[in-house]
Amino acid sequence: MRILLVNDDGINAPGIRVLQKALKENGHKIIMVAPDCERSAASHSITLRKDVTAKRIAQDEWAISGTPVDCIMIALQKIIKDDVDLVISGINAGQNMGEDVLYSGTVAAAIEASMLGYKAIALSINAYQDQLFEEATRWFMTLMEEGIYELTSPDRVLNINFPNIAHDEVKGLRLTKTGHRRYYNFVTVKDETADGFSYRVGGNQPEWDFESGTDSEAVNQGYISISPLGFELTDPDGFPPILSWIESKQLLEV
Description:
By secondary structure, this protein is α/β, with parallel strands linked by helices.
């Protein structure tokens, strides 16, 4: 297969390099287009009113001075001349479960590829340090051999999270919904003056709600979580109360 590989941790991050090596060894043609530095939590942002540079650092490897979504856009509209069969984003150093998918550059890159009509998968591992990328990659190679890419479509991204444990300790796969988490002490004030202050976003580990059937529950119990993500943003449950309000205020069109 021809595979576009991207991430948000940067083109030299170990997660993407381990995955690149394994995919090549399994006979896939890999084109890697990734940020030239870490762009974690970039979400679905794109760079406007500022030049973005693309630098070829090796054969089929491009470093982009922009966001993960910038990488997808420039890769699929300029760098890659022939179509790709699949876009893979990751392996991210840290989980992308629950509300994390809204902040994640890893997931956003996969979503952008899907919106452009390509099959896409996002990969993450549940650890902020000492990640066992080789173990997660071994599992993903098995999933590829079993044809997991056939389950993707231009309107659906597969968001896969791996527990950070040895290959043989993984209990299996679970199809999951996105769970919920909350970060505490997430803003750290670094310096403060009479006129203001400087701060950093980051802090304690998130506290997860291990609700049954969620990605967080599955990974916490030693399973690989597979969550299909769609892009229908309209909430149908919101229609009845809003319609009733409009009718009660006599604001319907005439």
